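Weekly structure sync, notes
Attendees: PL (lead), two postdocs, one rotation student
Agenda item 3: pending single-chain targets
PL asked that the sequence for the first pending target be pasted directly into the notes so everyone works from the same version. It is reproduced below exactly as submitted, 500 residues in total.
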Amino acid sequence: MTTTGTRLDHTGWVKQAEHAELLTEAFFGGGFVPARAGRTFENRNPATGTLLSEVDNCDAADVDAAVRAARAAFESGVWSRAGGQYRRQALLRFADLLEEHAAELAVLDSLDMGKRTVDAYELDLPFSVGLFRYYAEAIDKISGEVAPTPPGSLALVRRAPLGVVGAVIPWNYPVDMLAWKLAPALAAGNCVVLKPAEQSPSSALRIAQLAAEAGLPDGVLNVVPGTGEVTGRALGLHPDVDCLAFTGSTEVGKLFQGYAGNSNMKQVWLECGGKSANLVFADTDDLAQAARTAAFGIFFNQGEVCSGHSRLLVERSIHDEMVKLLVAETENYQPGDPLDPASGMGALVSPEHTSRVMRYVEAGAGSAEVVTGGNRVTVGDSDCYVAPTIFTGVDPDSAIAQEEIFGPVLAVIPFDTEDEAVAIANGTQYGLAASVSTGSLARAHRVADRLVAGTVSVNTVDAFSAWTPFGGVKASGHGRDLSLHALDKYTSLHTTWISL
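Predicted structure, written out during the meeting:
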């Protein structure tokens, strides 16, 4: 078995893909269980168009069974009251197994949703493994409080797990987003029912199997594959789910808020869409480096990134030079076979999503100039590929500058003043991330303070780590993943007041 740290060439990844095991049944109560109604959905490889598997489409009865398994495990105390050291050791064993099976999981994500295997293997998996280790080690570092009270009384405040956590994750980073939700929720002592995106169920089902191998008790981690309309809705409406953590579109995030209101008013934590702005000022020290980071910020992972920097705001005096540098950078992001490390981008997740991206491109071409790209690309038997596309002369109020495209499409907008740049950057419904390139420390602080975004990166793009909170404001959602602050979402404050 190939492990993290061993590089594979194209032939090696093809062989890994040929031996991939695609699991299809739901996992709850410690084992795989077929969907009660027997309904399935197709899981196709967007890079080739081939059918990978027929996956169980769980309905409300399946979700209810998974939630009951999670509730029984939680109430038994086998995980929630087992003690921090027990959970720590179990999660560390789990992380070790994820690392051991990194190549297998990377190729499952690539087959399901089209991303480059090398990116999943060298970036997604190491970060996910590290995240489980981070939260495992954090378990015994979180302590309670003794509140100041009048003489003759003692008030103890402790963090208690919520109970059953529902987690709904997207298809663009299947393993990563799983880790972002599961690691802190499990570390806090909760039991989880996870719904992976219907476009990328394979790695989640395999990871559930690895969790059982690592020794997580039955019912602690449960996975229900299915569609958002059926399975996701059932999880959102379930009256015995205490918390729902979601990453995905703003449109679907609003549905989960409604589900909570129509059921048990469960906590709902949302990380939704984005339209991140990258502001490049004329005093930038290294414009070539700014172009490299700008290209990475929109073309990496085929542009299928919620915090993707799809708007590039450039001071007018350097606009033409920056565009020239950007066009040159697109040579590093030409689409190709996701199993080939030499490919610059992989496939978009589906024919439907590719068509959606192209509709934005075609609409944008009516009012702005396409300086490179703008075309759908066929690789082998699949046309789920889009060339890296750059628009100039973009109206800040146009659809390509306001709406989340979720593809390799960059809108370049010139500005003349700092105030104008900030106003344009803040002029969307989203507030997930933003970036600033400048050689002035004063400007970096000043502009970062004024940008309405959860994370502002300076002289880089989309910076995040296990130690820093990630999340948005406005229509990008609320709550934070990553860092110790993520534990806030999965715990409640429990006060015990003792009269002495």
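Discussion points:
- The chain has a mean pLDDT of 97.
- Residues 117-138 form the longest helix (22 residues).
Action: rotation student to compare against the earlier draft before next sync.
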